[in-house]
Write a structure and sequence with these properties.
With 337 residues, this protein is mostly helical. It has one domain. The protein has helices at 3-11, 19-44, 48-52, 55-73, 81-95, 99-112, 132-137, 140-149, 152-166, 179-203, 205-229, 246-252, 261-266, 273-278, 287-293, 305-311, 327-336; strands spanning 130-131, 256-257, 302-303, 316-318, 323-325. The strands form 2 sheets. A 3-stranded mixed β-sheet has the order 1-4-5. A two-stranded parallel sheet has the order 2-3. Helix 4 packs across helix 11 (205-229). The radius of gyration is 20 Å and the shape is globular. The model has no long low-confidence stretch (mean pLDDT 91). One of its GO terms (molecular function) is oxidoreductase activity, acting on paired donors, with oxidation of a pair of donors resulting in the reduction of molecular oxygen to two molecules of water. The chain crosses the membrane at residues 21-43, 49-67, 83-102, 153-172, 184-205, 211-229. Keywords: Membrane, Transmembrane, Transmembrane helix. One of its GO terms (cellular component) is membrane. Pfam families: FA_desaturase.
């Protein structure tokens, strides 16, 4: 058996869900989120600024809830598909990302990530990029638009709340043949109207907006950053389809985002992204265990927290140099020619 096959086989030892860990993570994540939001509502009667001070904590719990939804989308969090579907849908009422539609879209990402010949298009600017040659071939207007939409402030601060709060309310990138997923978007919206409508009638719509909007904005920004940097950075690679295989892509086109323990807890170990891509059925609460069990799994592109913030600048793949580059680097290389 090849070393690559051995590595994938090794991860299967960790894909069995542990129900007590899944239940505990669900209770602490939902419980922490609801408790923090309740405290924000109580404080908002005295000072909106005091309430807002708790928004980052609530956002952290919401990010953790999204990681649970993510695991449920891979049928990895619990052993049964029904349990994953129920918990995943419950998560989506807080994350605002329609579960069934998001799950199928995300499954597509796992088949093509960092494959230059099967790049995603459309709204997902985080799972794709242009090569330097393709970027230079664009007209000046299209080049400026591409660069503007990939600017860190636009892509990682302005767009995430727009996507989660606005665009996810419509099946904007869901094929018409995905009837079940499109219907699920509308069912999610009806549930959200009932939930937030009831909360607004009980507490006041202004109070609900004051608490929930800042939390959602922060959580969406953090969540998008987490997922986008996991395939970026100077040392991650893209490959043509003929040279692409899932194991090499897991180990060289995904990263290990090394986070402090408290951030690792709130982000549900998603920093072990190479392990996740190697075997999406490994639940998040077993990713670290799997990572540390095999030396070969630690030989991957590694990002510190600081590296993670820098990684969002890498927006183009330079085929000649075989690495990701920034727009500035691409421009400088073009001037030297």
């Amino acid at each position: 058996m090849s070393p690559q096959a051995d590595l994938r086989r090794h991860t299967r030892r960790f894909q069995a869900p542990v129900p007590r860990k899944g239940i505990a993570q669900t209770l602490t994540s939902f419980g922490g989120f609801f408790a923090t939001c309740a405290a924000m509502y109580l404080l908002s009667g005295y000072s909106h600024w005091a309430a807002l001070a708790l928004a980052p904590l609530a956002a952290g719990f919401l990010v953790r809830i999204f990681i649970i939804q993510h695991d449920c989308g891979h049928y990895a969090f619990f052993g049964g598909r029904r349990a994953n579907a129920i918990v995943g849908f419950a998560c989506s009422l807080l994350t605002l990302a329609p579960f069934a539609s998001w799950r199928r879209q995300h499954a597509g990402h796992h088949g093509i990530w960092n494959d230059l010949d099967r790049r995603q298009s459309g709204a997902d600017i985080y799972s794709s990029c242009l090569t330097v040659a393709e970027y230079r071939a664009l007209s000046p207007v299209r080049r400026a638009w591409y660069r503007a939409t990939r600017h860190p402030l636009v892509a990682n601060v302005l767009l995430p709340p727009l996507v989660f709060i606005g665009l996810f309310r419509f099946p904007f990138d869901t094929p018409r043949t995905w009837k079940r997923e499109r219907r699920a978007v509308h069912i999610t919206n009806l549930a959200l109207i009932a939930m937030f409508g009831g909360l607004g009638l009980l507490l006041g719509f202004g109070e609900v907006a004051t608490v929930q909007l800042p939390v959602m904005v922060l959580a969406s920004i953090i969540g998008v950053w987490l997922f986008s940097v996991q395939h970026r950075g100077e040392n991650t690679i893209w490959a043509r389809n003929a040279d692409w295989d899932p194991v090499t892509a897991s180990m060289r086109s995904s990263t290990y985002l090394r986070l402090p323990a408290v951030l690792r807890w709130f982000t549900g170990n998603i920093g072990y992204h190479h392990v996740h891509h190697l075997n999406p059925r490994v639940p998040n609460y077993r990713l670290r265990e799997c990572h540390e069990s095999e030396p070969a799994l630690r030989d991957v592109p590694t990002l510190s927290l600081r590296d993670g913030f820098r990684a969002i600048q890498y927006s183009l793949w330079d085929e000649a140099r075989g690495r990701m580059v920034t727009f500035r680097e691409a421009a400088a290389a073009g001037q030297r020619k």
